[in-house]
Amino acid sequence: MKHGDVEDTDVEKLGNYLQKMIGIGVITPDRNLEQFARSAGNLPEMLEEDYPEDVITDDAKENKSIEHDQTTVKEVDDNDHTEK
Predict the structure, then answer these.
(1) What is residue 13's predicted lDDT score, i.e. its pLDDT?
(2) What DSSP element (H or E) covers 61?
(3) What mean pLDDT comes out for the span 28-36?
(4) According to the model, what pLDDT value does residue 84 have?
(5) What's the first-to-final CA gap in the chain, in angstroms?
(6) Helix crossing, 31-40 with 53-79: angle to 10°?
(7) Which of these, 24, 41, 46, 54, could form a disulfide with 50 (CB 3.0-4.6 Å)?
């Protein structure tokens, strides 16, 4: 059995798919999607200073929310005195 070359992503199909999914709200664009789309299109990575301020703010809010959720879970575990 021989393995062939990995096919390049059909960026036109990917672009159409992302446009539709973002347009109807199924996918929310973020840094990970930006990096994936750039990689698929063989484009250079964006530098931190190139991101719009609202993207940086939204990512920071998301990270804070995740940190808060993890803290809340830890606090619940610490206060749970039932035997497991």
Answers:
(1) 95
(2) helix 53-79
(3) 92
(4) 46
(5) 50
(6) 120
(7) 46
26 is written with which tokens? 């199924």
Contact 41, 11 (CB under 8 A): yes
Tell me the backbone φ, ψ of residue 71, rounded to 5 degrees.
-65, -45
What mean pLDDT do residues 20-39 have? 94
Residue closest to 41 by CA, chosen among 66, 14, 81? 14
Q: Rounded distance, CA 45 to CA 40, Å?
A: 11
31 in Cβ contact with 51 (< 8 Å) = yes
Q: What is each CA distance from 31 to 10, 51, 73, 77, in whole angstroms?
A: 21, 9, 26, 32
User: Looking at the predicted structure, is the pLDDT value of residue 27 above 50?
Assistant: yes
Determine the Cα–Cα distance for residues 37 and 18; give it in Å rounded to an integer: 9
Q: Which two tokens stand for residue 29?
A: 């664009």
How many residues would you count in the chain?
A: 84
